[in-house]
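Q: Predict the assembly, please.
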Amino acid sequence: MKSAFTAGKLFGDRQLNFLLIVNVLVVLVATWLSRGQFVDIDNLQSMGGQLPELGLLALGIMLSMVSGNGGIDLSGVGLANLSGMVAALVVPRFVNGDDSPALYTSLFCVIVVTMGLLGGLLNGVVIARLRLTPILCTLGTQLLFTGFAVVLSNGASVHVDYVDPLSNIGNGTVFQVPIAFCIFIAAVIVLGWLLKRSPFGLRLYLMGTNPKAAFYAGIPRARMLITTYAMCGVLASLAGLISVTHTSSAKWDYGNSYLLIAILIAVMGGVNPAGGHGRIICVFFAATVLQFLSSLFNLMGVSQFFGDCAWGFLLLLSLAFAGGERVRAIFGFGGGAGASNAASPASSTPKS
Amino acid sequence: MKLTRLGAALAAGALTVGVIAAAQAATNETIVTVVKVTGINWFNRMDDGVKQFAKDNPNINAYQTGPGRADAAQQLKIIEDLIAKKVTAIAVVPYDPPTLEPALKKAMDRGIKVVTHEADNAKNTMVDIEAFDNTAYGAGLNERLASCMHDDGKWAVLVGSLGSRSQVQWADGGIGNAKAKYPKMNLVEPKLETNNDGERAYEVAKEVLRKHPDLKGFQGSSSLDVIGIGRAVEEAGMQGKICVYGTGLPTEAGKFLESGAINGIAFWDPKLAGIAMNKVAQMLVDGKTVENGADLGIPGYTKVTVAKGPGKGIIVRGQGWVNVDKSNYKQYPF
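A: Predicted assembly structure:
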């Protein structure tokens, strides 16, 4: 099975093919419609700066979905805002940004990521040890994180001092590429490697596909879950770091519409909500196509509602294209008799 | 085969978009109004104003856009795309002004003219337009209340939240006006908080009525205050005996205006604010600026006052409030 990359394998994934084709089509059409303005460096940078927040949240959703057993992390947006806000409130008390910008920035990043890690660990522990359903647990922690953020800020925006290196995380570029986009790409590569090449990834897919078999294979369920949700938390906090530095402010309800869009991206990227299946590269391209469309509609001055409509249409298309197997995986019915593997073990396991 | 069908479908969709785009790309001067959220009455009304401005100025491509969901993040994305699009001017009603500061700064750095509305704390704007001076607006409401009360009797003031700067300024404007002009008016309850909640306003109003059975007037601040007061007054059967004035929206307060539980409301017309924003944006594009006392040619903005803003920009205030009672509230469908 360890064959090298052959063309057949590279183009064997229908989901990936679909997403690549849609991406290319959208870019071509957009370039033509906007008379080249779409591929103008300004617009590319603007899109590259907008994508990471949502993309990182979608990666978190994907990880939690792959872990199976109804896994989902609804607390991402709340945790992102809370981590950014805590850092924005704490760091100025200890470090003066004007005197030592480097220290200010690094402390800021450390606090944000630590907050994300702690929030993720909380989710993981509750789900793994207390055996609470992920959707209920993360719904609860979502309210908890948001509530903390409201109390900490009295509901108003928390201002973040302008410190050059910190502001660069959200607004700066290296070689014309937005730094935020580089962070996102780094996260994609690291996660891609983890899922594809590391024992952790293999175990995670196994556990998502068939928890019972995974149990008998000696996969430590609790430790896997805690690690997975901690990673979701870190991803969320990275999204928070980018949004806070991008807007120079932290607010409890920033990005409140992101949760559903992130789930949409994950599902459109072919992640199986029942667990066990999903490719990082597909999620990446699902995120890019949504960003292309949204920017195109803004460039054209088309209503945002039309954008929502187009996204829904794309999701349906992707389901239709992926075939009955995925439709059944998501809705539990439908699909042809030829469909096999994937979700069936998880859903057909008898409940004892 | 699926691919061809898919391609055809996408191309058809794209063509539709293209036709719209081609129609819009005919002019080179573009002023885009970005609102907090699209699809609600208030901003639909503002869209009427923007459309009227576009009609009156055929050489300018002016249109309104905004996020489909009330979210600062979505509004920010739209503004970033507009900067990349290199529009001539952006007129924005910020969802949360601090969130947009870096984006608006970027816009101004790239030579895009920026006009804001309802954001007198925004630093990175060239002109912020406020419909009126908050103190004068509160005093205006109080004048109407005083004439209804015949300058005499007990009255109370409600505010949605003591943390809301504009609402407190409206209340203080009313209180100051009564103190200066009508010594016989007796303020028994200054600034009771209603948490921006109609239900809470109703409870507060009921308590006030119980405590002061001879109360003659109410002044509300949040748009939900008058609704709560109206309910309480109606329940007590005191329509016509108690004067109720405050900020309100015609569609929400209409029922109580009809029954007489609310005597009158005031608000500013988003349609006029939309026209004013675009007009000022056009003036900035033409290299002009707004002078103190200038006439923008829009009702309520005929003699604006100009003050310095928190940043480099200026704040332009009109006298753009609209007084409405039972007789004319139907003219304002929002």
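Chain B has two domains: 29-130+270-301, 134-268. Residues 301 and 318 of chain B are 5 Å apart (CA to CA).
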